[in-house]
């Protein structure tokens, strides 16, 4: 898809089996919303073809596609009641008028809004409006449900509640769903499968747990989770194990990249929760790599403390480390000497 | 006196002054219309409804009023489709030269009414239609159209561009999207605009003066003509009827859509 001379979506081929919940995850400007709008039929791809149920749909206008969509700003019809909003797709798609009221009722019940049908849209809370939008998108039993970051504007508590709600409804109806978000947590929570996008290109397509545990490149490793990168040069490859040195320190990790050979510049990615922290003279048993550093900052986040540690031996790399232990919370302060340790199997090595 | 009470006093003085200035002409005319005497005075010389009786009998005033209503109706009938479509287009779609079009549509405000009035007199004169009512309606529509467009754009620009996409996603083809979604959503603006257009056309004096002849005088022109001969209290009475009509339209507006939408219009 090209706007002017900007390629919003370049290489984005994927297929989605019926009944699955797919999340397209990416930063703003990664092309995820454009992809969704093309699937909905609002924008026409400048190249390539979209198939739904095996049928090419590029030439099919949006109102002839059997796709339900929940918009980012919901786009509920303000001059209609909740029930009228939900009934609208049924009327437009010429469903049997006698069956419409009970269908509307059923879907309002499904989203737990039974009895709210007569309310005007502006009389409903943010969460209730979300539910109306979901009911409107699902009531005509679409082949495909599209979610365009509908939860982005909600406060955190409500957002997390609605994420589980989306999941429940999707499982209950078994409707094939494509969700778009920049919220990695949401992607991990709701999806059967994740596509990570950047620069209009698919970076990785995997189950949530695999995208998290085995990111396919540095972008994915950086985008999902809190990740430390250590720059170095490959010294030896014995797939899947890769040895590299960073500022003279020998390190090792895993890599699925067959193109990695000795002498190449590389980056080792290490999740903040995979790093153990101890006092400067403390012991870190059973860890393959141990380095010394000092605390630059410690951030209290409630269930965990995030330490920022400067490591002189690794060319002053700043590493972030989580401490989840309630006993030892805030045991270190800025300036304290600490020792960090990790295992090579937790380090993923990528080309740089 | 503390600071806050002196502030209150000054504020209330301003409010009182503004209220008096705004309502004085209406009160004077209203008072004068109930006079029992034969000349127009304020305070009235005794109270009676005889001048209201007089205007009910005066067929020239009645006919002029009827003509004004027809002019206002024509003006509104033209303004509704033109202003609604123009307003929606300007607010919602990326129209080429939108800026220039907006300025062009504001031109009627910047050109002195006497100037546009003479222009229209020449045009309609050339067409040989001077003295008929519909050119007056069209002229009122042209000079007041920005009000209509403002009212509609105020409603339309609050509309999320996603609404029509959502309607398409619900299975609505383009015409249905416009009829079921866009139009109802801008309806408050359309009602506001059309009532405004109706009042403005009903009251329009200067342009009417230039476009009417003896057979087609509208009410404001008729009143003006009468003032030039003898000023009798029936003019005050007809003015009150006039004001009542405008008041009725405002009340209707408030009832139908609420005045706040008009006050918010850009």
TrEMBL record, chain B:
Record's keyword terms, sorted: Cell inner membrane, Cell membrane, Membrane, Transmembrane, Transmembrane helix, Transport
Domain ABC transmembrane type-1: 65-254
Cellular compartment(s): Cell inner membrane; Cell membrane
Record Pfam families: BPD_transp_1 (PF00528)
Matching Gene3D superfamilies: MetI-like
Entry membrane topology: Multi-pass membrane protein
Predominant localisation class: membrane
Keyword rRNA-binding: no
Protein family according to the UniProt entry: Belongs to the binding-protein-dependent transport system permease family.
Protein name: ABC transporter permease
Organism: Shinella pollutisoli
């Amino acid at each position: 898809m090209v706007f002017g001379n900007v390629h919003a979506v370049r290489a984005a081929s994927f297929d989605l089996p019926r009944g699955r919940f797919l999340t397209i995850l990416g930063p703003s400007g990664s092309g995820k919303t454009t992809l969704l709008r093309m699937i909905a039929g609002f924008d026409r791809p400048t190249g390539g073809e979209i198939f739904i149920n095996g049928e090419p749909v590029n030439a099919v206008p949006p109102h002839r596609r059997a796709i339900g969509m929940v918009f980012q700003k919901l786009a509920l019809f303000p001059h209609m009641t909740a029930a009228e909003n939900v009934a609208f797709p049924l009327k437009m798609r010429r469903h049997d008028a006698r069956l419409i009221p009970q269908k509307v009722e059923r879907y309002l019940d499904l989203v737990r809004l039974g009895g709210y049908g007569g309310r005007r849209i502006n009389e409903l809370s943010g969460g209730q409006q979300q539910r109306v939008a979901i009911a409107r998108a699902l009531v005509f039993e679409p082949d495909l449900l599209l979610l365009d970051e509908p939860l982005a504007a909600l406060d955190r508590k409500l957002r997390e509640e609605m994420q589980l709600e989306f999941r429940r409804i999707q499982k209950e109806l078994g409707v094939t769903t494509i969700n778009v978000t920049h919220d990695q947590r949401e992607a991990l929570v709701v999806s059967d499968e994740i596509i990570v996008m950047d620069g209009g290109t698919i970076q990785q397509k995997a189950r949530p747990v695999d995208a998290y545990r085995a990111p396919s490149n540095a972008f994915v490793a950086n985008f999902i989770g809190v990740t430390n990168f250590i720059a170095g040069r490959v010294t030896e490859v014995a797939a899947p194990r890769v040895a590299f040195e960073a500022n003279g320190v020998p390190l090792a990790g895993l890599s699925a990249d067959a193109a990695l050979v000795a002498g190449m510049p590389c980056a080792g990615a290490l999740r903040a929760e995979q790093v153990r922290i101890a006092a400067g003279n403390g012991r870190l048993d059973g860890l393959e790599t141990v380095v010394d550093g000092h605390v630059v900052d410690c951030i209290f986040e409630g269930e965990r403390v995030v330490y920022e540690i400067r490591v002189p031996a690794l060319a002053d790399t700043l590493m972030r480390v989580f401490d989840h232990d309630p006993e030892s919370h805030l045991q270190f302060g800025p300036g304290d000497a600490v020792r960090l340790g990790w295992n090579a199997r937790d380090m993923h090595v990528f080309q740089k | 006196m503390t600071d806050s009470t002196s502030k209150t006093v000054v504020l209330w003085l301003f409010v009182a002054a503004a209220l008096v200035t705004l309502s004085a002409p209406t009160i004077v005319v209203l008072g004068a219309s109930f006079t029992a005497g034969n000349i127009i005075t304020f305070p009235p010389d005794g109270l009676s409804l005889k001048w209201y009786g007089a205007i009910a009998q005066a067929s020239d005033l009645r006919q002029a009023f009827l003509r004004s209503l027809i002019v206002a109706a024509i003006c509104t009938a033209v303004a509704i489709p033109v202003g609604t479509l123009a307003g929606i287009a300007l607010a919602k779609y990326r129209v080429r030269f939108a800026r220039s079009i907006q300025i062009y549509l504001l031109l009627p405000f910047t050109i002195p009414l006497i100037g546009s009035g003479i222009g229209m007199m020449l045009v309609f004169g050339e067409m040989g239609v001077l003295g008929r009512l519909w050119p007056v309606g069209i002229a009122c529509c042209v000079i007041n159209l920005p009000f209509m467009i403002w009212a509609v754009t105020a409603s339309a620009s609050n509309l999320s561009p996603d609404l029509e996409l959502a309607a398409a996603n619900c299975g609505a083809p383009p015409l249905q999207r416009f009829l079921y979604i866009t139009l109802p959503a801008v309806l408050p603006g359309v009602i506001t605009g059309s009532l405004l257009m109706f009042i403005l056309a009903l009251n329009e004096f200067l342009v009417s003066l230039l476009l009417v002849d003896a057979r087609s005088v509208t009410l404001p022109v008729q009143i003006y003509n009468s003032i030039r001969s003898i000023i009798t209290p029936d003019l005050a009475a007809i003015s009150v009827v006039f004001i009542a009509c405008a008041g009725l339209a405002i009340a209707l507006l408030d009832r139908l859509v609420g005045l706040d939408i008009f006050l918010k219009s850009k």
